[in-house]
Design the sequence.
């Protein structure tokens, strides 16, 4: 495992970067971006095999962002790692920019166009089946939202993943309990989410999803050669790291302005170790 | 003479032969191996066959994943469910992402005539041709289905194919040049042009022969590819013959007729008629009975042609 302090500081770098990007673009899905940052940092800087100099490397692990609206930390990480120039982040959501509000394959390092919820787990199942057919050890990681769990297509994919014994597939739910209209349990309750996934034939792990050490330990402890897919339910805080955004549904796609922006930066910078 | 085998069987026999030589080919089904006639394929090449169960959205998503990993998936399901149930996956995972997946819609149009509207696919051309990045092809007979299947293996990008359920008469006695995106001029004529696709091409061909008896010479275009549309062939037909009739197993709006009308309205307004299924609850019965009910017949096509020529 990589140095945890470095990874934590990296997560802070990414959060600051995405807040600046969103503020500059005057658009973005801030709450979910902040809740999922630690998950993405753990995957890209610790767990996954990938090569920014060779995005199509045959041996790479695959990542799909099913909750495509949380594209901001994804883009900031890819830029930080050298998939494309960091200066390009200033074009986020600008006219004709390839850095738009959801992932597209025009961006080096992005495997799939996503944004319509409930799609990427099926695509991941196809990618994981393909690795088995091709006798390759590559793994597939997919990050979903918790509100997204209401999409029926996810459960079609859930069945197929266990039917085809896809141990090389790991799904993650960014379990922040908030979606755009409010608490997930009020909008469409998911209360027994772990048992839902278990009953579909998945191994389920629960982890503190804003704790990088716990995330990396858990991700690295999974046996990816077993005959069951794994679902990681990552308990997170929407708006994590910015005091006035935490656990506030209104920051789902709120953009900090003026004093809010300054407060957000101060809050985030205070997390450096 | 009606063939002994339907187009879907020709597709499965051809893809089996191709897949034996090409391990990248994967065929997927949605509990549809019987209806697609994939049993022999699944038994012969189990490693290149993936059963998805009754889950069309997952069918298309999984196919996208297979293609992203370098395989060549052919996703097979009844056209009614494949086109409508999984439409967003087609739009996003295939067309938007330019994923190399071939969708094979079987028993399209009113093939399942007596099963009702739930099992008809009469808006699939409209939906698919309104989707940027997709190619849409309707083969008309066994010969063309064989040629199309071979062409699909090397064709890069997402394609929606629709074929019927029952065996059909051959339009082509032997292979003629087949290129996705290029209409086939089945016969030359100077008085009018009939443009058809899929199972209506044979009707157009026969109607042209009947019209010839009355001294009317008809150009017949097999517009097997609905998207990208061969606008050159349409505009040439309009300027050479001055009258256009389209005939299709689809609603008379949004499909072949609509596509042709869009081209003509902008470039060369030309007297035309569109024969298809009207905007109503579709009558049920054998597919031939449904065709007859809505005038998708040689007799009505001839009558409509003569009426058009009076204008």
Sequence:
């Amino acid at each position: 495992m990589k140095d945890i302090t470095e990874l934590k500081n990296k997560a802070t770098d990414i959060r600051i970067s995405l807040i600046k990007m969103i503020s500059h673009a005057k658009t973005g899905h801030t709450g979910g971006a902040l809740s999922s940052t630690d998950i993405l940092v753990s995957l890209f800087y610790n767990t996954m095999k990938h090569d920014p100099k060779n995005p199509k490397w045959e041996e790479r692990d695959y990542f799909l962002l099913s909750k495509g609206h949380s594209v901001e930390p994804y883009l900031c990480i890819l830029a930080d790692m050298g998939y494309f120039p960091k200066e390009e982040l200033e074009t986020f959501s600008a006219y004709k920019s390839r850095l738009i509000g959801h992932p597209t394959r025009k961006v080096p390092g992005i495997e799939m166009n996503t944004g319509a919820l409930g799609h990427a787990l099926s695509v991941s199942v196809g990618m994981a089946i393909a690795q088995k057919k091709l006798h390759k050890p590559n793994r597939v990681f997919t990050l979903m939202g918790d509100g997204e769990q209401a999409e029926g297509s996810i459960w079609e994919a859930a069945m197929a993943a266990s039917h085809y014994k896809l141990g090389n597939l790991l799904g993650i739910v960014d379990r922040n309990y908030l979606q755009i209209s409010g608490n997930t349990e009020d909008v469409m309750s998911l209360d027994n989410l772990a048992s839902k996934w278990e009953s579909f034939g998945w191994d389920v792990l629960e982890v503190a999803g804003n704790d990088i050490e716990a995330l990396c330990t858990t991700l690295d402890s999974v046996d990816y050669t077993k005959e069951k897919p794994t679902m990681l339910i990552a308990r997170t805080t929407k708006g994590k790291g910015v005091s006035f955004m935490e656990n506030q549904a209104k920051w789902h796609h709120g953009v900090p302005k003026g004093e809010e922006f300054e407060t957000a930066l101060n809050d985030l910078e205070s997390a450096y170790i | 003479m009606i063939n002994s085998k339907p187009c879907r069987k020709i597709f499965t026999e051809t893809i089996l032969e191709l897949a034996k030589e090409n391990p990248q080919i994967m065929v997927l089904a949605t509990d549809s191996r019987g209806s697609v006639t994939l049993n022999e394929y699944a038994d012969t090449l189990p490693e290149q066959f993936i059963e998805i169960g009754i889950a069309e959205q997952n069918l298309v998503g999984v196919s996208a994943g297979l293609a992203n990993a370098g395989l060549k998936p052919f996703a097979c399901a009844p056209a009614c469910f494949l086109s409508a149930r999984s439409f967003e996956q087609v739009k996003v995972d295939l067309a938007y992402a330019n994923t190399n997946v071939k969708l094979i819609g079987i028993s399209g149009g009113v093939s399942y005539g007596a099963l009702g509207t739930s099992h008809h696919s009469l808006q699939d051309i409209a939906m698919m041709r309104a989707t940027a990045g997709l190619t849409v092809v309707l083969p008309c007979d066994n010969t063309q289905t064989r040629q199309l299947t071979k062409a699909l293996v090397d064709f890069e990008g997402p394609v929606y194919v629709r074929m019927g359920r029952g065996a059909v008469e051959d339009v082509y006695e032997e292979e003629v040049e087949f290129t996705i995106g290029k209409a086939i001029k089945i016969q030359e004529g100077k008085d009018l042009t009939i443009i058809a696709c899929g199972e209506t091409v044979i009707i157009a061909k026969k109607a042209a022969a009947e019209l010839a008896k009355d001294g009317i010479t008809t150009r017949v275009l097999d517009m097997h590819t609905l998207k990208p549309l061969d606008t050159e062939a349409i505009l040439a037909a309009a300027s050479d013959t001055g009258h256009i009739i389209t005939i299709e197993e689809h609603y008379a709006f949004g499909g072949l007729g609509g596509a042709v009308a869009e081209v003509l309205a902008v470039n060369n307004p030309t007297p035309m008629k569109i024969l298809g299924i009207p905007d109503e609850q579709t009558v049920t019965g054998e597919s031939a009975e449904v065709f007859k009910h809505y005038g998708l017949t040689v007799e009505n096509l001839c009558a409509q042609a003569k009426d058009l020529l009076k204008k």
Notes: Strands of chain A lie at 62-65, 140-145, 169-175, 178-179, 182-183, 203-208, 230-235. The CA atoms of residues 25 and 73 of chain A lie 14 Å apart. The first helix of chain A runs from residue 4 to 25. The interface with chain B takes residues 62, 104-105, 111-116, 118-131, 133-134, 152-153, 156-157, 159-160, 163 of chain A (CB under 8 Å).
